[in-house]
C-alpha cells in the first residue's frame, strides 16, 4: 500500500508532540491526565477518520475515574493567586463531560474534595518544585467562567474555521444534532443510507437536510456517499475559511475555494511553465485523496492548463 | 517559531488535533494559550517527521490544471483528473487542490 508509512509517521508525530508539550502542561499547571486525554482523543479522531490504518486507543473502562486534582488545589501561601483558585468552580461543569463518539467516558469529579487534597497537598505544602501549585507568573486566570474559552478559535482552525467556536450548546430541546455528531461513522453511514433509501422509495427529491457540522458532513461524504450533495444548512459555504496561512489565501476568488475533499499540503522547490505545460517539483507532502492519507518526500507534477 | 509552516494543520492529523484541543478548551480543561503551544509543537513535529527521512517515497502525478494562484510564496493549484503514481500503485481522483509553500533553503529562516 502506498500509504503504509502513514501510520508510523503519525505515531511519531503524536508521540513527539506529546513528549514535547509535557513541560508546557506543567508550566501552566494543567494536570497530566488532561495531556493523556488529549492524546487519547487525538488518536481516536485519527482512527475514526479512517485516513490511515490507525488503531484507536483502547477504550478506557467507563468506571475509571479521572480525578481532577487541580480542583482540589491549595495555593501555597504567597503564591501567585491566578493559577488554581477558580478551578473548583469548574467541578460541576466538567463532571459529565463526555467525549464523542467512542462512547461513555464519564469524567467524574471526585466526590470528596478531601481525597483530592490528600493527593496534592504533600507536594504543594512541602514546597518542593513539583509542578502543582508552583507559582507561575504567566498563568492566565483559569476559566473562572467555564465558557471563557468558547469563543476563541484556533488559527488554522480547521476546514470549518469558525464553526466550532460558534456552536453553542443546544438549549432548546431535543439534541438531535448532538446525536448525529456523536454517532460513530458506521452508525452515521447506516443512518444516512437509510434516509436516502427512504427518499428513493418515496421517489421524492432528495432534499433532506443533515444537521451535521460541516466537517462531519464531509466525513460522511467521504465514507461512501460521494455523488450525493448534502444540503448545507448552516449558511454560506465558508469562503472565509481561516487557512492559517495568513489572509492571502483567503481572499477568495470563488473558484479557488471550490473545496474538494482532496487536498495536498506540501512545499514547492520549483514551479515552471512553458506555454500551457506546467511542471512543479514538490516535497514534504501530506495528501488526502479519496479519504486516504498519503505522504511523500518528493513529488513531480505535470499539468496542462 | 515562525520558521515552521502552519499549513499542515489542515491535514487530517492536524484537524484531528485541533478538534481535540477545541474540546478541551470548551470544557475548560486547557486555555487557548496552551492549545497554541501544542499546535506550534505540532508544526515542529511535522517538520521533524519529514526532515528525519521517515518519509522517503516519491510520487509522480499528471493532471489538468483548472486554476492556479501564487501569492506570497504560496502556490495553490486546482487540478482535475489527477493520477498519482506511487512506486507500486496509483490513485486517481476527480479533483484535488494543492497548497504548496515555498521550500526553505537550508540556512535561511
UniProtKB/TrEMBL annotation, chain A:
It comes from the Eukaryota. GO terms for cellular component: transcription factor TFIIA complex. Residues 234-260 have a biased composition (Acidic residues). Residues 121-133 have a biased composition (Polar residues). The keyword Manganese does not apply. SMART domains: TFIIA (SM01371). Transmembrane segments: none annotated. It is found in: Nucleus. Gene3D superfamilies: 1.10.287.100, Transcription factor IIA (TFIIA), beta-barrel domain. Residues 120-173, 228-260 are annotated as: Disordered. Keywords: Nucleus, Transcription. InterPro entries: TFIIA_asu/bsu (IPR004855), TFIIA_b-brl (IPR009088). Its main location: nucleus. GO terms for biological process: transcription initiation at RNA polymerase II promoter. Belongs to the TFIIA subunit 1 family. This is Transcription initiation factor IIA large subunit. It comes from Dissophora globulifera. The gene is TOA1.
Automatic annotation (TrEMBL), chain B:
The keyword Oxidoreductase does not apply. GO terms for biological process: transcription initiation at RNA polymerase II promoter. It comes from the Eukaryota. SUPFAM superfamilies: Transcription factor IIA (TFIIA), alpha-helical domain, Transcription factor IIA (TFIIA), beta-barrel domain. It is found in: Nucleus. Its main location: nucleus. Keywords: Nucleus, Transcription, Transcription regulation. One of its GO terms (cellular component) is transcription factor TFIIA complex. Residues 62-103 form the Transcription initiation factor IIA gamma subunit C-terminal domain. Residues 4-49 form the Transcription initiation factor IIA gamma subunit N-terminal domain. Transmembrane segments: none annotated. Signal peptide: none annotated. Belongs to the TFIIA subunit 2 family. TFIIA is a component of the transcription machinery of RNA polymerase II and plays an important role in transcriptional activation. TFIIA in a complex with TBP mediates transcriptional activity. This is Transcription initiation factor IIA subunit 2.
Amino acid at each position: 500500500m502506498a500509504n503504509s508509512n502513514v501510520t508510523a509517521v503519525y505515531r511519531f508525530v503524536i508521540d513527539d508532540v506529546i513528549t514535547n508539550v509535557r513541560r508546557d502542561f506543567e508550566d501552566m499547571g494543567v494536570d497530566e491526565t488532561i495531556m493523556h486525554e488529549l492524546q487519547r482523543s487525538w488518536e481516536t479522531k485519527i482512527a475514526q477518520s479512517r485516513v490511515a490504518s490507525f488503531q484507536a486507543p483502547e477504550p478506557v473502562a467507563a468506571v475509571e475515574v479521572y480525578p481532577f486534582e487541580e480542583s482540589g488545589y491549595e495555593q501555597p501561601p504567597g503564591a501567585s493567586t491566578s493559577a488554581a483558585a477558580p478551578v473548583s468552580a469548574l467541578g460541576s461543569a466538567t463532571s459529565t463531560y463526555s467525549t464523542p463518539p467512542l462512547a461513555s467516558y464519564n469524567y467524574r469529579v471526585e466526590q470528596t474534595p478531601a481525597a483530592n487534597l490528600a493527593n496534592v497537598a504533600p507536594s504543594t505544602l512541602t514546597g518542593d518544585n513539583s509542578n502543582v501549585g508552583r507559582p507561575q507568573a504567566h498563568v492566565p486566570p483559569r476559566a473562572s467562567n467555564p465558557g471563557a474559552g468558547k469563543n476563541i478559535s484556533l488559527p488554522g482552525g480547521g476546514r470549518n474555521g469558525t464553526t466550532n467556536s460558534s456552536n453553542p450548546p443546544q438549549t432548546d430541546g431535543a439534541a438531535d444534532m448532538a446525536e448525529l455528531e456523536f454517532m460513530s461513522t458506521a452508525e452515521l453511514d447506516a443512518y444516512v443510507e437509510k434516509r436516502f433509501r427512504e427518499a428513493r422509495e418515496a421517489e421524492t427529491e432528495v432534499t433532506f437536510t443533515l444537521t451535521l457540522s460541516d466537517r462531519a458532513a464531509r466525513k460522511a461524504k467521504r465514507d461512501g456517499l460521494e455523488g450525493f450533495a448534502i444540503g448545507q444548512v448552516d449558511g454560506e459555504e465558508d469562503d472565509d475559511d481561516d487557512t492559517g496561512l495568513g489572509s492571502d489565501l483567503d481572499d477568495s476568488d470563488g473558484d479557488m475555494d471550490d473545496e474538494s475533499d482532496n487536498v495536498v499540503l506540501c512545499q514547492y522547490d520549483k514551479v515552471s511553465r512553458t506555454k500551457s505545460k506546467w511542471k512543479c517539483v514538490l516535497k514534504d507532502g501530506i495528501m488526502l485523496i479519496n479519504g486516504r492519507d498519503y505522504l511523500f518526500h518528493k513529488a513531480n507534477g505535470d499539468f496542462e492548463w | 517559531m515562525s520558521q515552521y509552516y502552519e499549513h499542515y494543520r489542515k491535514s487530517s492529523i492536524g484537524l484531528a488535533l485541533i478538534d481535540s484541543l477545541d474540546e478541551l478548551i470548551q470544557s475548560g480543561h486547557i486555555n487557548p494559550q496552551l492549545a497554541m503551544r501544542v499546535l506550534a509543537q505540532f508544526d515542529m513535529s511535522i517538520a521533524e517527521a519529514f526532515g528525519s527521512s521517515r518519509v522517503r517515497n516519491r510520487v509522480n502525478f499528471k493532471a489538468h490544471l483548472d486554476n492556479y494562484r501564487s501569492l506570497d510564496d504560496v502556490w495553490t493549484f486546482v487540478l482535475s483528473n489527477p493520477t498519482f503514481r506511487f512506486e507500486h500503485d496509483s490513485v486517481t481522483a476527480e479533483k484535488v487542490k494543492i497548497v504548496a509553500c515555498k521550500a526553505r533553503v537550508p540556512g535561511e529562516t
